[in-house]
Amino acid sequence: MKKAFLQLHAAVLLAGFTGILGRLITLNEGLLVWYRLLLSSLTLWILLFLSKKIKRISLKDCLKIFSVGLIAALHWVTFYGSIKYANVSVALVCFSAIGFFTAIFEPLVFRRRIDPWELLLGLMVIGGIYIIFHFDPQYKIGIIVGILSALLGSLFPIFNRIFLRTHAPETVTVYELTGGLISLSFILPFYLQLFPPDHVVPGRNDLLWLLVLSWFCTVLAFQLSMNALRKISAFTVNLTYNLEPVYGILLAFAIYQENKELGPSFYAGLTIILMAVALQTVNVYIKHRSK
Q: Rounded to whole angstroms, what are the CA distances from 133 to 74, 107, 146, 268, 276?
C-alpha cells in the first residue's frame, strides 16, 4: 500500500512538472503538443504491443474516443499557450477552474441535478482568478486562454468515465492520444499560419525535454497511476490529483523564481482558490464516507 501511494504522488508530481517543461521548451504551443502526442502515442502503442494488451474496438467507439482526443489535444494547446502568454503559475491557477466547469457540464452529460455546493466552490475559484485578472492586467491574455483550457480540460474526463465502463484504461488512453495526434495534424497547418512559429523542428535541447515530457510526464505518469489503482481506490486517486496545481506552482517558484514576478493580488487569488480546493476535498471525502 505504501508503494502504491508513493507511485500515485510521483504521478501527480510528474503531471505538475508538465507546466515547467512547457515554459522550458521553446516551440510554439501547437507544435509542442503535436510532438508530445506523436512521441507519447508511438511509445504507448509499442509498449501495449509488446505486452499484448492492444484491444480492438468498434469503428463507432474509435471515432467517439478520437473526438475526445481532439478535445484533450486542444486543452493541452491552450494550457501551454497560457504558459507562453503568462507564466506557469498563472496557467496552473486557471487550471483550477476545471472544478467550476465540471460542476456545470457533468450534471448535463449524466442528466442529474447540479450540486449547489460544487457550483459555489467553483465560483470561489473563478473569484480568485478574477482578483488576479483585475489587478494584474499583464496576464490578461494568458488568463483568458487558461480559462478556455480549463473548460476543455473539464470535458474529456467526463466522457472518459463513459468509455471506461466498457474499455480498459490503456485502450482509452492510446486511442485518445492517437485521435488527438491525427486531429491536430489536420488543424496544425492553419494554426501555424495564424501563429507563425520561430522554428518548426525542435533543436537538441527541445527534443530532450520533449522526450522527458512524453516518456516521463505522460507515459510513465499513466503507468504509475494505473499501478496505484490496483491497490488504491479511484476515489483516492482523483482526490490526490487536486494537488497537481499546487505541486506545479511550487516547482515554478523553485525553478523559475516566479514568486518574484507575482504581486499581492496573485497570492490573494491563490489563497481563495486553495481554500476552495480544500473545501471540495473535505466535501468529497464526507460524501464518500457517508456512502
A: 23, 28, 11, 12, 18
